[in-house]
Amino acid sequence: MRFHSSLGTRLGAIVAVVAVVAGTALPAHAALTSAEHRAVLAALDDEYHAQATYRAIMERFGAVRPFSNIERAEVSHAAALIGVLRQNGLSVPANPYLSGAKPLAPVPGTLAEACALGVQAEMANSGLYDGRLLPAVAGNGQLTQILTRLRDASQTKHLPAFQRCGGRAGQMQGRGMGGQGRGYGGGRGPVWN
């Protein structure tokens, strides 16, 4: 009997995992309000813009850190927002900055200027989240948690990395710092970095 009970529990768990992976068993949730939908799209646009900007900087200066690490983080941030849209049966826009549908500012002429641009962008990001996006989703716990994590990653990880980058940009060579190929963070950290 114990074997059958254990087997039944395991099979039930496997079926539940397969159902979730197949997209047939999403957690119960209320549909997004139009304000929440606009906030998710605005956050996604911000992540897309950052991703495209940092990618353009790397095209000019190589895969230097922190741009390479933060560009990857922006992709994972966008994926979290895309997940929200898909969970709610909403369409997912392509990155308009990568396609050229929306223009990017010219890439700075020096790596130090690119680092300063990163500092400005991450500081502005806090204002966007605190002043506009988080208030728009205040009644939705899932969205509040996601957007808070994105804002916090910007302020506690990206901003300090760009500040350090700006202080050492004159020493950057090759793929990392000082020709060592290491740079900031070593690619470690949580998904929300």
The percentage of residues in β strands lies in under 5%
Q: Report the CATH C-level class of the largest domain.
A: Mainly Alpha
Low-confidence stretches: 1-28, 170-193
Q: How many individual β-strands? A: 2
Look at the structure and give the mean pLDDT. 77
So what's the overall shape? globular
- By DSSP (H or I, 4+ residues per run), the number of helices equals 6
Strand order of the largest sheet: 1-2
Which percent bin holds the helix content? 55-70%
Order of helices and strands: HHHHHHEE
**Fourth-level CATH superfamily of the largest domain:** Ferritin, core subunit, four-helix bundle
Radius of gyration: 20 Å
CATH 2nd-level architecture of the largest domain: Up-down Bundle
Supply the number of structural domains: 2
Query: N- to C-terminal separation?
Result: 48 Å
Quick overview:
The chain has 193 residues and is an all-alpha fold. It has helices at 2-22, 34-61, 67-87, 96-99, 111-136, 141-168; strands at residues 172-173, 176-177. Strands 1-2 form a two-stranded antiparallel ribbon.
What are the defining features of this structure?
193 residues; mainly alpha; Ferritin; 2 domains; two-stranded antiparallel ribbon; 6 helices; 2 strands; 66% helix; disordered N terminus; disordered C terminus
